[in-house]
Known about the structure:
The protein is an alpha/beta fold. Helices cover 40% and strands 17% of the residues. The protein has 11 helices and 10 strands. A 5-stranded parallel sheet has the order 2-1-6-5-8. Helix 4 packs across helix 6 and helix 9 packs across helix 11. It is elongated. The mean pLDDT is 93. The chain binds adenine (ADE). The site of adenine (ADE) has 13 residues, from strand 5.
Amino acid sequence: MRIDVLTLFPQMFPGLFSTGIFQRAVEQKLVEVNLYNFRDCTPDKHHTVDDYAYGGGAGMVLKPEPIFAAVESIKVKEGKEDKEGIDRIPIILLTPQGRLFSQPIAQELSREKRLILICGRYEGVDERVREHLVTDEISIGDYVLSGGELAAMVVIEAVVRLIPGVLGSEASLLDDSHVTGLLEYPQYTRPPEFRGWSVPEVLLSGNHAQIAGWRREQAVQRTLQRRPELLDKADLAVAERRLVDRLKAGLDK
Ligand code: ADE
C-alpha cells in the first residue's frame, strides 16, 4: 500500500514510521508513506496557505489552491505509471465533521492499494476542497484537535496493521477488541501469582476448549459492562445471547 499524506507539519510523523511493526512493514515494502508539505505548493513568496474567512469571523481558513496543487502533482506523477487506477484513489480529509472512524472502516481502507490523506488545520478548509477534491471525510472522535495530523496517524496505524503480512501472527488480529464486535477478553502472562493475585485457574488448565469458552464469556461480560451498545450489533451464538440476558438480569438487581 502507498499512503501519501498532505500536511503542514510533516515533522510530526517520523516517530510513528520509525517504530515497531510500522518500521518493519516499511522495510518489507508492504507499505510506503510519503509526506508532502502543501506549503511547498504555494506560488507566492510568502508561501501563504491560509486566509481570512469570507463573511468574517475568527480564525483562518486553508486556501484551496495549495491543496489542489499538491494532490494534482501526486496524481500527475502517479498517472504516468497507473493511468486507470489514478481516479479511484480515495482522497480522505481528516476533519471532526467526517464519518466516525471504526474498525470496519480500517478494514475497508486496508484493502486499498493507495490512499491520500489530507490533514486540515486552523478553523477549517475551504469548502471547495470538500466538494470537488476529497472523496471521503473521516473523524477519529467527537472532540476537536488543532489539526488532522494525529488523526491521520491513528488511521494509518489502524489500517497498516491489517495489511496481510504486517503483523507477525495474523491470528492475533482475530481476537482484537472490536474485530469480533466485542471487547477483548482479559490477558495474563507469567508469573502465575503476583503480589497474591492469581491468574484464573482455567488459563493454566491446558484445556483449549474450556479456555476458549471462558474467553468468549469474559469478552461478552466485559462488553456488557463497558460498552453495552456494542452487543446489539455483535454476532453472538444463542447461548451467548442467553448469557447476556442472564448477566443483564444480574446487573439490574
Ligand atoms: N481534526 C481536528 N479534529 C479532528 C478529529 N476529531 N478527527 C479528525 N480530524 C480532526
